[in-house]
Design brief:
The structure is a homodimer. Chain A is built from 9 helices and 22 strands. Chain A is α+β, with helices and mostly antiparallel strands. Among the domains of chain A are: 122 residues, tRNA intron endonuclease, N-terminal domain (MutS, DNA mismatch repair protein, domain I); 81 residues, tRNA intron endonuclease, N-terminal domain (MutS, DNA mismatch repair protein, domain I, 3-Layer(aba) Sandwich), CATH 3.40.1170.20. In chain A, strand 14 and strand 15 form a beta hairpin. At the A-B interface, helix 3, strand 13, strand 14, helix 6 and helix 9 of A face helix 3, strand 14, helix 6 and helix 9 of B. Chains A, B: This is tRNA-splicing endonuclease.
């Protein structure tokens, strides 16, 4: 069976319509015949269902400019997994924005009114703007043509931790941390601020605070540093010296998490900015942290390679990977591995 | 018991020498008395063994410029783990270069002639030149003062894979991969080149090669592409278009691994450049890959955060993390988690 290509649309006759569209969800009815997106035609050529498009067999058609080869690889993979799906970019498929393939639930097709996934196809070397993500599935094709699916979402991040630190605890600003001698009993145990340097039985004798914790507590009037000038200025300056602009972004996200009842602690060991605990009653009865948070600057573009690394690492420690997009406000973006 | 500080050395009397040096490995004999590095003095103050150094108690001494607080944290941690150790930077401890703390085997001390670890102390925000690593243990102190130990080494990377591809297999250069139609039977199965697009039973009908695989095979005269000009130029140009300079670095490392009998495949899913197989007999009897390889440019500096992430991820999948330092030649640098 043969077909023709014109203006980016492949057309075939009545028999093709019956066999490809009606029976298997390819393309769209076109009078008595059927219209096909180039990727659909490539798949039919690949399967041997179509013999040629304008005289081109599968090899010639795939190597031609008409058919984007990454899209073909993902289309084929999803067909192999038992889905019917439609490429966008043709006028009979709705353009949802940032979507290359509209995937229907298993057992459904383009004639139903239901969508399982909206898929965007990217090479592992592409850069994907953070702003584009949140309601698409990324299909990342690596250099050896293997495909990883990453589902993105815009989650709500909030918790139930309820602790207010007491006022005016004294501390000392060292190189890049703050030491609190004889801290209030609950500052660590209930508030999960800092890390004990040493303890006498149950009692924390010296508490080490990170600069971001210290800056937040100074702003809450909960910490007083014996600096020569303004304490807030001193700790912010120190933070910017060791981390640059990143310190301000991290402090904004740290504060937003604390205000939302979530306790952030360093995520260093996981390569993230923070790991978070949604509901801290006391540190001695702490459950596992739920989220890994990475703070990204306004206008950030993700390298799929880095995204995959973060998601894999978070999955390996049973946490959810969340990105804090810092623009005017803070937006949360999650990503996790999907097996369609 | 009191001590005095002068020119970066703390001095105390005979009783201190007996109690601190002779019994517990602090400092160095100094006539009848003992000389101590500031970090050692801080630890003795912290324990209450010393009362004051020039009138300063532990808090004042740690907050003073005399004592680097990161070094103190690591010193204390290693003492807590049961080691005797000596800070460098004083004239009675050999300067090994890139070393802040010389750690003796458990049960041994500065009077023995044996070293367990040479430790370099870094903040998680520091940048560590790749060239400095290879025979030190990095003690990375995170912002909440937790310490991660990373052992670095210069391993030999070689394998026993023995396969030479046949000459002049034809292929087609697509956007960022190469397709080989009807490839030689062993190219995939024995050589582990490419990824099958489809197979007919045991037979691979179409093989997809990455650009780096294709460039290597073209240089071996094993692959012929139907390009208009020189095949090698065409595939290198394509690689540089999608990856920039990184493509040349990766190709150099890919080639070095192949020449050493090691099979590199993409490490994308692990956030690395390659995963490697030291001994491929056939793909159907493949064992797990052993190394994750990340290619770094000449003069690269590591962020300890990224290093920890790589090492953690490699550990999670039971592989060894190896960095390929690309300067005049290629040097291999490994890093793994250490629990002293």
């Amino acid at each position: 069976m043969d077909a023709t290509l014109s203006s980016g649309v492949v057309r075939a006759g009545r028999q093709a319509r019956e066999q490809f569209h009606d029976a298997r969800g390819y393309g769209d009815p076109d009078g008595e015949g059927v219209r096909l997106a180039p990727v659909e035609a490539a798949h039919l050529l690949y399967r041997g269902d179509l013999d040629a498009v304008d005289g081109m067999g599968f090899r010639e058609f795939l190597a031609s400019a008409a058919c984007p080869d990454l899209h073909f690889l993902v289309y084929k993979d999803l067909r192999d997994r038992g889905f019917y799906l439609s490429p966008t970019g043709v006028d009979w498929v709705e353009d949802y924005g940032q979507t290359d393939l509209v995937v229907y639930p298993r057992g459904k097709g383009p004639w139903d009114d239901e969508i399982a996934y909206r898929v965007r196809v990217v090479s592992e070397r592409a850069t994907v703007p953070a702003a584009d993500l949140g309601d698409v599935v990324l299909a990342v094709v690596d250099e050896e043509s293997e495909i990883t699916y990453l589902e993105t979402d815009r989650p709500d991040v909030s918790g139930a931790t309820d602790y207010g630190p007491p006022g005016d605890t004294p501390g000392s600003l060292l190189d890049d941390r703050v030491l609190v001698w004889d801290p209030p009993a609950d500052l660590y145990e209930r508030g999960f601020y800092g890390q004990p340097l040493d303890r006498d039985g149950e009692t924390v004798e010296t508490l080490q605070l990170s600069l971001v914790e210290a800056a937040y507590l100074v702003r809450q009037n909960a910490l007083v540093l014996a600096t020569d000038g303004d304490d807030e200025t001193a700790v912010l300056d120190r933070g910017r010296t060791v981390e640059g602009d990143r310190f301000d972004r991290r402090l904004r996200v740290y504060s937003a998490l604390r205000e939302a009842g979530v306790v952030p602690k360093t995520g260093y060991k996981f390569g993230a900015d923070f790991r978070t605990y949604a509901d801290v009653e006391s540190v001695s009865e702490l459950s596992h942290s739920e989220l890994l948070v990475r703070v990204v600057p306004d206008g950030h573009g993700f390298a799929p390679r880095d995204l995959a690394l973060d998601v894999r690492l978070a999955g390996g420690v049973r946490k959810r990977m969340v990105f804090a997009l810092t623009a005017a406000g803070i937006e949360w973006l999650s990503a996790e591995r999907l097996t369609p």
